[in-house]
Amino acid sequence: MNEEKGLEALLNNGARALLDRLQDRDLACEANRSERAARIEFEKAEWSGELDAWTQERDPYSVKVGQSSNRMHPRQVLRELERAMPADVMVSTDIGNICSVANSYLRFDQPRSMFAAMSFGNCGYAFPVACGAKIAVPDRPAIAYVGDGAWGISLNELLTCARERIGVTVVVFNNGQWGAEKKNQVDFYSHRFLGVNLESPSWAEVARSFGCEGTTVDTLSQVGPALRAAVAAQTEGRTTVLEMVVTRELGDPFRRDALSKPVRLLKKYQDFQ
Ligand SMILES: Cc1ncc(C[n+]2csc(CCOP(=O)(O)OP(=O)(O)O)c2C)c(N)n1
Ligand SMILES: [Mg+2]
Fold this sequence. Notes:
Blueprint: H1 3-22, H2 33-53, H3 60-67, H4 74-84, E1 90-93, H5 97-102, E2 114-116, H6 126-136, E3 142-147, H7 148-152, H8 157-164, E4 169-174, H9 179-188, H10 203-209, E5 213-217, H11 220-234, E6 240-245
Parallel strand pairs: 1-2, 1-3, 3-4, 4-6, 5-6
Thiamine diphosphate binds near residues 95, 124, 148 and 149.
C-alpha cells in the first residue's frame, strides 16, 4: 500500500469510528435551530434598518464638515452602490476610512466574493486585487473600492487594464483627504491637521487619459446607473473609474486603539513608554 492510500484508509477508519460513536446521539444545535435562525433574521433586519437611518456620521467633527458641504455623504453612496450591485459580484476593498465603513454595506450570496485587505492593511491593495480576480474568473463582475489617497498610489495599473483589455470597475471615493489618518488627528491630536488634505486632478479625466472610461458622480441618483453602466462595460474588456465626490466626514476607524498608549504586560517592558 503506498503512503497516500495508507493515509486515506486511516482517515476513513477514523471517520467511521467517530460516526459509530455519534450514531445514537442527538445533535444539541438541532433542538433550537429555528429559534436561532429567527434570531439571526431579526438581528439582520435590525442592522439593515439601522443602516437605512444612518445616512451620515454623527460625531461633532463630521456633523460640522458635513453641514458646510453639498457633496454626497459616504454612507449614502455606499447604500446606493449596494443596491445596484450585480449578482455574482466580487468586491475588493482598500484600506481607508470609507473603505472600512464600506465593509458593512457589502453582502454576498456565494463564497470567494469579498476581498478585504483587513489586517494586512496596505493602501493600494484593492485595484490590483480586482484585476487579479477578474483574470481568474472573467465571467464575474469585479469591483474595487478605493479612497482617493490610496488611488494615487495604485492607479498605474489602469495602463495594464487598457493594454490587456481587463475590464474592472473602480469606485474612487474622493473626499479630498487621507481620511483614516485625519481621523487619528481628530481623535488623538486635538484636530491639528498635518499632511492629510489632498488636492487631486479629476480622477475621471486621468482614467480617460490612460485609455479607460472615467465618470464623475456627484449626485446620489447617478450612483446606481453609473455602477450598472461600468459593470456592463466589463463584458467588453473596458475598465471604468467612477469618481464619487463625497464630504470630508469621517466614520469610526478600523481600530479605535491605533494610537493609544500600549499596555505593557511584561515587567521587563514596564519602563518603556
Ligand atoms: C502603503 C500604505 N501607506 C500608508 C498607510 C497608512 N494609511 C492607512 S489608511 C490611510 C489613508 C487612506 O486615505 P484614502 O485612501 O484617501 O481613504 P479615506 O481614509 O480618505 O477614505 C493611510 C495613509 C497604509 N495603510 N498603507
Ligand atoms: Mg480619501
